[in-house]
């Protein structure tokens, strides 16, 4: 069993039979923050359809941007395209929104259940080029399992 599939199994067990959205997202953020190395922020942005923006959800880390427009920055781009964004150097990402100027790398995974767009999982690192294809696969698997509990 890889560490990746272990994270997905852990979140599945942790959230078993719990219907509370905020509790589930809070515990998922805590699990990732505790399990991943070289990360400085782990959290969620949830889609607010009426405002066509992503609103800050449960997270672990420093204070964060509270609203991000759909399609803006790494978070908004991941949501608008429904494709995971892996950014080795956020300072080179056109339109990057610096919620924490110390962050250097980022990965953002869309959270979608069929046609229902929920939001994104956002993870930041102080380390340039922190996230790779293995991280992407693991976090996409984690997100797919998490969505079943939302």
Automatic annotation (TrEMBL):
UniProt entry tagged with the keyword Iron: no
Pfam families documented for this protein: GAF
One GO CC annotation: cytosol
InterPro entries named among the record's database cross-references: GAF (IPR003018), GAF-like_dom_sf (IPR029016), Phosphatase_reg/MetRdx (IPR051330)
Keywords: Kinase, Transferase
A GO MF label: kinase activity
Family in the record: Belongs to the free Met sulfoxide reductase family.
Listed name of the protein: Histidine kinase
Organism name: Loigolactobacillus coryniformis subsp. torquens DSM 20004 = KCTC 3535
